[in-house]
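Sequence in, structure out.
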Amino acid sequence: MTGIILEGIPFAGKSRLLANLRAHPALAARSSLLLLGSPYTEDGAGERSEQLMYSLLAALEPLRVLTFERFHLTNILRHAGGDRGMLKRVEGMMRFYRPTTVLLTVSEEVLAQRLAAAGQPAGRVGELLAQQAAYEDLAANCSLPTIIVPADEDAVERVARLL
């Protein structure tokens, strides 16, 4: 069993990538698939967030499945202040699933276009790029396989190769 954890800032294109993956032949060839989006994988601050991650991993253990959108990096950055100790503990639990974390990144130009299309203030570009840098910094400290994939036309094929 292998899994994919799709991480990235808002407007990086995670949902778009997942939608395109659902139509990809590599995904259709899998005998079973479970995709958990961020409403199922994010909760509360610090310790509560860490407990949620452990609970999800324990519940899914019999299925040998792990495909999450915004899981450990997002929880650790948003709810635990980037706690490297929590990263190490959570990844220790995740090793059993042999997941690869895919950090989807977006360029400043594309991010500005996506924010404008969503009616978001242009001033958010800097804030979101700073968040992206924090994701990249935390990803560099991961002990599990982690790849950084630019959100471009080749992203779907790069991620599909992991399936």
